Amino acid sequence: MKIDKPVNKPVIVALDFPDTASALSLINRLDPELCRLKVGKELFTRTGPDFVRNLIKRDFDVFLDLKFHDIPNTVAGAVAAAADLGVWMVNVHAGGGRTMLEAARNALSEDSGTLLIAVTVLTSMGDEDLSELNVSATSAEQVMTLATLSRDYGLDGVVCSARETPMLRQSLGEDFLLVTPGIRPAGDSADDQKRVLTPSEAVRDGSDFLVIGRPVTQAEDPSSKLQQIMAEINGKK
Ligand code: C5P
User: Fold this and answer.
1) Residue pLDDT, tens place only, 169-219
2) Is residue 6 part of a domain?
3) Domain of 82: which CATH number?
4) Whole-prediction pTM value?
5) From 41, 57, 67, 194, the catalytic residue
6) Is there a domain that residue 2 lies in?
7) Whose CA is nearest to atom 13 of ligand 1?
């Protein structure tokens, strides 16, 4: 799916909730004109596809963050199932390799409304963790290798840390989507994130979509927090 840039709705709110009720109490206060939503493994495993259908029925674009990683045939089936569910974005692990990436890509029709992106190296993994896996590249080198592979095999983009955004934007060009977590509006707590950027810094460095959880989900007024974030991105603050 081709996305016009800069994207008009760059914030993806991470629904890191353990059940439908707590997720819905936030969603009832959010406007699908202002943000998209990310459903990850915990919420999906607890609430299932019907919950995702409910979000889509409420006009939200849903990023199904299940990070598929399996043999090509299985991943292709899972990606096709996500597209049938009507999600706007789905992801796979680039470490599944060329055949898996191609199978995932081919599982989506040319005019599919679903974006396919990849995870490269998890940001929880450092150079020492890679070396223990017998990967001699640094994490930055491995991110570049896996992101390049993802682009070359037709994926729409990658999830990457804010730290990796400038190098990926520079080498992979403008058409490749960069989706970045670890975002904190100026003055907000970093929580357990080690390196954070503000929304406008992330966009300046080349991020297309910002995954933002607690700054919005824990805000007293999530909707006005989102409006503040959008104003900051648009240089109005
Ligand atoms: O609450 P917070 O804004 O830190 O949430 C960030 C979201 O992005 C969470 O859903 C987290 O799992 C996800 N994420 C991340 N870092 C990564 C990949 C995903 O924080 N490298």
Assistant:
1) 999 999 999 999 999 999 999 998 888 899 999 999 999 999 999 999 999
2) no
3) 3.20.20.70
4) 0.96
5) 67
6) no
7) 181
Instruction: State the residue for tokens 């890679």.
Output: 130
CA of 172 to the centre of ligand 1 (A): 23
Ligand 1 pocket list (CB less than 6 A) = 14, 16, 40, 123, 159, 161, 181-182, 191, 193, 211-214
> How far, in Å, are 27, 34, 188, 224 from residue 237 at the CA level?
26, 17, 15, 14
Phi and psi at 177, nearest 5°, equal -80, 135
Query: How many domains are contained in the chain?
Result: 1
Cα–Cα distance for residue pair 143/165, rounded to 1 Å: 11
Residue 43: domain span: 11-228
Asked about 67 being catalytic, the answer comes back as yes
Residue 237 lies in a domain: no
CA distance 37 to 234: 20
Packed helices 165-172 and 139-152: angle between N→C axes, nearest 10 degrees: 40
Distances, alpha carbon 126 to alpha carbons 23, 118, 135, 147, in Å: 32, 18, 11, 17
Q: Give pLDDT, residue 5.
A: 79
Q: Which atom of ligand 1 is least distant from the CA of 182?
A: 20
104-135: pLDDT as tens digits: 999 999 899 999 999 999 988 999 999 999 99
Ligand 1, pocket-test mutation among 37, 125, 211, most atoms within 8 A of CB: 211
Is 110 within the bounds of a domain? yes
Nearest CA to 204 among 10, 63, 32, 62?
Answer: 10
